[in-house]
Amino acid sequence: MIEYPPRLDLARLPTPLTRLERLSAEFPGVDIWVKHDEMTGTEVSGNKVRKLEFIFAEALARDCDTVITCGGVQSNHCRATAVLAARLGLKAHLLLRGERPAELSGNLLLDHLSGAETSYISQADWHTHEDYGRELQREYERRGRRALFIPIGGSDAIGLWGYIAACEELRADFERNGIEPDAIVAATGSGGTQSGLLVGRELFGLGARVLAFNVCDDAAWFDRKVRRDVTNWNERYEMGFDVDNLQVTTIEGYMGPGYGVADPEVYRTIAGVARQEGIFLDPVYTGKAFSGMLSELRKGAGGCLAGAGAVVFVHTGGLFGVFPHHRQFDFSQDSEDE
């Protein structure tokens, strides 16, 4: 029995696990399942709310009235943080990578509608964003406020609990559906979901491998980041977890031109999955990971999913991030209604 730290009831859980009938038919012998974490809510949909249930509990326990966090201009994590802060009566201050766009759309629009304060840090200076955030935290304290700094993606020792708890949920899903998946697949950007899945897999005895498709950085970076986060979690909560034998598997080759920038194949995958299954992926995270998963399945014996009979894709959300990319979709071949 796992003893969880304090947690708020912010997500709509459990999320469904469903089999993709038409896509699975394209891969004889393979069942493709989706864990619908895009359904954890509406305004706070996606994987981040699982982590924020624990992080906001920590903020309230420390009597914080402000949360500071960081991410890209279209960050799902920043949007979820801003909305939840508004619901809990806290101030959110977001540090966003890049320049303020001429038009507010997608996640950024929701950030502003939620009343979050935003500061923009250039790409050239982004390596200093944590230092900036810590100084901002001290500045709020000088004003008589108490602020909690949340790292990118909520990926730290506290946020790790989000996907540890999700693995307990997955175990019940597998038992209810009578399946024993060979792999759990997810996108990885800040490493928190990947770390939680890896730890939860061990704690709850899931036999499936955890395969993460990177949307930024490289496999070596994620190996270091995951081990550092798990080590910090292990020490903070005195869990006695065997970090040394953690199997961190990050599948490279599907990041495309860079973080937040997708190639045409990703947009084709997003459109194809929407048409076949009525499921919407995004160009930053899930579209890249899902496209990579399909590519690896098509490789057969030469792919990382060789021999898999059942694969579970963790849909980590990102719907609002689709809208700023609307010009990248090609609808020229769509037939007109007659």
Describe the structure.
This protein is α/β, with parallel strands linked by helices and 338 residues long. It folds into two domains: 202 residues, Rossmann fold (3-Layer(aba) Sandwich), CATH 3.40.50.1100; 107 residues, Rossmann fold (3-Layer(aba) Sandwich), CATH 3.40.50. The chain has ten helices and ten strands. The strands form two sheets. Strands 1-2-10-7-8-9 form a six-stranded mixed β-sheet. The mean pLDDT is 96.
Quick one: overall form? globular
Compressed to H and E, one letter per element, the order equals EHEHEHEHEHEHEHEHEHHE
Multimerization status:
single chain
What's the Cα radius of gyration? 20 Å
Structural class assignment: alpha/beta
Strand content: 15-25%
